[in-house]
Specification:
Helix content is 72%, strand content 0%. With 271 residues, it is mostly helical. Helix 6 packs parallel to helix 8 and helix 6 runs parallel beside helix 10. The longest helix is centred in the last third of the chain and has 35 residues. The chain is globular and about 65 Å long.
Length: 271
């Protein structure tokens, strides 16, 4: 149990370190990113200056990233319990562990972007988004007919390399992200067709709603304060992160339901 989680942790850590090093070397310095307070609707109120230091001038957008860590840690713990009682297999656990360890790392990466407003931290934030959606496709393929290590590595390599679109087009990231979302939705629908159980419908629909909410709220961040000044505190960017965190939770729930169902069916056939 511990070894599977440690293996996933080491793999995610190594890949993340390589990504950070490539960004540090400046390979993506020409990529377009939105850096600076002018791109965020959240305003630093006078009362926060009495509580937080000046560099923590977007507290809502900073602390919301703890949600990724909480959800990731929760599902890592839940995966360990499920593996211990043999509800899932070792190969299933790798998918859960990897996804949720990525979530915890992602929370930290986004917090660094908010706090520093450095171009390179923004690049890493963008780049790290893509493997999340590709992992949903990989996960679906695993449940469908098995994908194997070679398949996982191939698809994740394609996902990571797709960020190079940012070097040839101003909206390369948006193009890559849209393709990743389509892959994720296609994979999720495909595996549901194979295991069409009612319990999986709700988390799937909510994941789509939260995904759409994540995109819309982030794009509308600077426009929402025109509707109500409240959105200068509880900003669209902050709410988009709430939607994203809930999306990750729903994806976990969706694959948890399908994985348990698939394993229960296989166990019945083997008896």
């Amino acid at each position: 149990m511990v070894s599977m989680m440690m293996q996933a942790f080491l793999v995610v850590t190594v890949i993340t370190a390589v990504m950070m090093y490539l960004v540090y070397l400046g390979y993506f310095d020409t990529v377009h990113t939105e850096v600076g307070r002018q791109f965020y609707a959240e305003r630093y109120s006078a009362k926060w200056s009495k509580v937080f230091p000046p560099w923590l001038n977007m507290p809502y957008n900073t602390f919301v990233n703890l949600g990724y860590i909480v959800v990731g840690a929760f599902y890592c713990a839940k995966t360990s319990v499920s593996l211990h009682v043999k509800q899932i297999t070792s190969s299933d656990s790798v998918l859960f562990y990897t996804f949720n360890i990525m979530a915890t790392f992602y929370g930290a990466i986004q917090a660094v972007r908010i706090l520093t407003q450095f171009h390179r931290s923004a690049v890493l934030d963008q780049w790290y988004t893509l493997p999340f959606f590709m992992w949903v496709f990989v996960w679906s393929s695993h449940l469908d007919s098995g994908i194997g290590i070679k398949g996982m590595v191939s698809w994740m390599a394609i996902s990571l390399l797709s960020y190079c679109l940012t070097l040839v087009h101003m909206h390369g990231f948006e193009i890559a992200l849209a393709l990743h979302i389509l892959f994720a939705v296609y994979g999720a629908i495909t595996i549901y067709r194979k295991f069409p159980i009612k319990e999986a419908q709700q988390p799937f629909i909510w994941a789509l709603i939260f995904c759409a909410g994540f995109v819309f709220l982030k794009l509308a961040d600077l426009e929402l304060p025109n509707l109500n000044p409240m959105f200068e505190k509880i900003s669209g960017h902050f709410l988009s992160k709430i939607a994203d965190i809930l999306q990750i939770y729903c994806v976990n729930k969706y694959f948890e339901i399908l994985t348990l169902y698939k394993n229960s069916v296989q166990n019945k056939k083997s008896k």
